[in-house]
Amino acid sequence: MTLRLSDAEADALNRRAALESRSMQDVARQAVREYVENHSRAELLDQVLDQELPRYAEALERLAQ
Length: 65
What we know:
Layout: H1 7-19, H2 24-52, H3 57-64
Helix pairs in contact: 1-2
């Protein structure tokens, strides 16, 4: 895989890596892991809500009154 960054993105990644005394690759790989994990959780939560909210719609409506 080749990742092409703009000059500004590469500079920002380089600065972050230097601040953390890590390689640019390590910082980028962690960012990808966090992105995938965060979005996977959000998708799972959306899926659960889509399945469960209709079950409790009447109760939630009563509570809102």
